[in-house]
Amino acid sequence: MGAQCADARKCILVVDDSAVDRITLRAMLADRYDTLEAAHGPDALAILERQGRRIAAVLLNASRLSLSEYEFLRSLRSRQEFASLPVMILAQLDDFDGELRALKLGATDICRRPCPPSLLQQQLENLLLFSEAVALDSSLGRDSLTGLDGREAFYARAGAVIAAGGEYMIASLDVERFKLINDLFGAAQGDALLRHVAACLKDALPKEALCGRLEADHFAICLPRTGAAEEALIALARDCLRDYPLDMKIELRLGLYDIVDTAVPVNIMCDRARMAGASIKGRFDQICARYNDEHRRALLKEQAIVNSMRDALEQEDFLVYFHPKHDLETMRLVGAEALVRWRHPRLGFISPASFVPIFEKSGFISAMDEYVWEHVCRHLRNWMDAGVPTVPVSVNLSRVDIHKPQLCELLLGLLRKYRLPIHMLRLEVTESSYMDDPQQLNATIRNLRLAGFFVEMDDFGSGYSSLNMLKDIYVDALKVDMRFLENSSDSRRGTTILTAVLRMARWLRLPVVAEGVETVHQVNFLRSVGCAVGQGNYFGRPIPADEFRTLLCRGSVGTESFRVPDEYADMEPEALWQASGEFSCLFNALPGVGACMCLLDGGELEVLRANDACRALLADGSGIGEIVLLEHICQTDRPAFLRALHAAAERRQPQHVCCRCRTASGRLVWLDAGASFLARSGERVLLALMLRDMTREKQREMRLCRQEHALARTGGHGAGRLRRGIFRSPARGTEWP
Ligand code: C2E
Ligand code: MG
Ligand code: MG
């Protein structure tokens, strides 16, 4: 009985024994609701049983309420699945007894006839909104951490409000670098920060704003589209974390999406707001962005990529290119990296930089990677069968691969299938996987290396965690991208970073592959600092398999010459980074003693690592910037200071020297510096320095000196006793704190 309901509109079940009345009611509701119709209670129950999920409310004409209608109400309320279904009674103007009876049996609301269609529609609308909100509250979870709506609750509640009409917008709020906050300060601090943001939202926004936490640090807000609401939101994003008590600058990024088309699902609206917010990530000058056409185009492109990726795999539209790696000493071809390319039937050649991140989001990357690995193995087998001299090929593992329990078995299976020795297939894992999940990365790399794979750490030095990572994770080589270094505003800084990375790598006996090598100048520099292997457009661009085969056939193939200088060989390099090792004891366990590790090279001195006390001493505790030790030491005392260091290096015995030093804030202090030899490589010497602040003792001694002079002038005795200080007084005319 009755018409089928269309899905988008809400559906009302009209129960009335008069066919004429049913037609009238249908007409009254037609411009807002679809209707199903039943002549009496049992009929209505039958419809509910069949189509209950689609029915939003029941409209029961009770003008001639009979036993069967009461019975219908009673049985409706006795069944759990219909217990909260709203039931509106259409009553005669003066039938108060009947109304009361219906209400007692569980009717939700009453509308008295006669009434105009608009009144009936509005009353129904209110009833539906109210019951949806109540249903949400009880059925959908609140976020227990913040007390805001959880994802589903937010979507549903915002959806209901938006559907009810009015002008709204959706905002997305993200904490910048939230993961880093969790890593640095712990999850409890991260949670406290999220609660603080939630409290700001509750305090600062108008009452009608709906707030939810969709996941991690991602908040969503649905609020009226007014200038005042937007201003409140921007002020909140700007001020909420301004004085937050964590020793780090924390910022929020706000994305706005104006709702024009209410048919767009709320989750998509949230994605769009978030995309706008993400577009200004890392921008220090902008905290808020609005979703615009550019974002829309990017989303469309992303969608096009997602829509065609599976076909691409089937039709083999992904091509594997090979990027040669050369030994920097012999310049021979010693390896290659496999890089994927997409020959898209409509969009043309697409670079992995545009599709790999999208594949990572959807998890599809894992299928694509396996495709690439298999193609690499197949090529290697073909070349070997044809007697072509081959080199090891590195393939990229994405962060999704790292989590695959069967990863190692899968790779070993490929080697078996193509009968390849394990050294032929090298693996590159990216440093950013460390940020996602350090333990998982560590476990995966350990497994792969145990199985015999050569694992390279890709893009080393691009993240904040490089140093941390090295102490936790053992790999076979580091890959450093020259272009990361060039991007820094000061190219000298880039060179310094690279030199430091290479030195560190040597201590850890890790070979370094430099990629992004584009000029002969870079090649010479890399050679001079002991980098073993280079990859980059200087040697050639990534090329298709057949061209790479030709290159191999040309015959200048070799093996790389990874070397570790002998001078460092007797030293236990890991000790430098172990938290529990001797070095760290040296560094951290001596309260008040500044310790640092320095590299002495002729007249130059570079601080490689300094403990907190050392920073407190020289930099007055001001942050973690680079310490240029020699610049702190007063010019007149520098030669003596350097002499002592050279003596420590030559005699390999600890030396002490006392000198004056100016701190970062301009204070003058006396330092007692003890230098010990650690290791030597050519002209360069690694030293440990212990610095002690002697200013107090020196001041005391000076006071005694002055008293002694005064006594001497007045002819007093005992001056000799007073002068029993430990240190000589400074030369005349020198500075004195
Ligand atoms: P990556 O693994 O760090 O690869 C190095 C990228 O730097 C490659 O870009 C390479 O062509 C480029 N490159 C190397 N030397 C130079 C140079 O001297 N000049 C210039 N201009 N570029 C140079 P590509 O192929 O666009 O790959 C970008 C990123 O996409 C890769 O970075 C990697 O993260 C990802 N990727 C590429 N292929 C795959 C793959 O098969 N699987 C996965 N998971 N990721 C891949
Ligand atoms: Mg790579
Ligand atoms: Mg790289």
Structural notes for this entry:
The chain has about 725 residues and is an alpha/beta fold. It contains 28 helices and 25 strands. It has an 8-stranded mixed β-barrel with strand order 11-12-14-15-16-17-18-19, surrounded by 4 helices. Helix 2 runs parallel beside helix 3 and helix 5 runs antiparallel to helix 6. The longest helix has 23 residues. It is flat. It starts with 10 loop residues before the first strand and ends in a 15-residue tail after the last helix.
Unique ligands: ligand C2E, magnesium ion
Distance between the termini: 100 Å
Helix segment tally = 28
Number of strands: 25
Global morphology: flat
> What strand order characterises the main sheet?
11-12-14-15-16-17-18-19
What do the pLDDT scores average to? Answer: 84
Indicate the radius of gyration in whole angstroms: 37 Å
- Which class of secondary structure composition applies to the elements? alpha/beta
The low-confidence parts are: 1-6, 564-570, 577-582, 718-737
Strand content: 15-25%
The oligomerization state is single chain
**Biggest pleated-sheet summary:** 8 strands, mixed, barrel
Helix content: 40-55%
List keywords for this structure.
737 residues; 28 helices; disordered C terminus; disordered N terminus; five-stranded parallel β-sheet; binds ligand C2E; eight-stranded mixed beta barrel; alpha/beta; binds magnesium ion
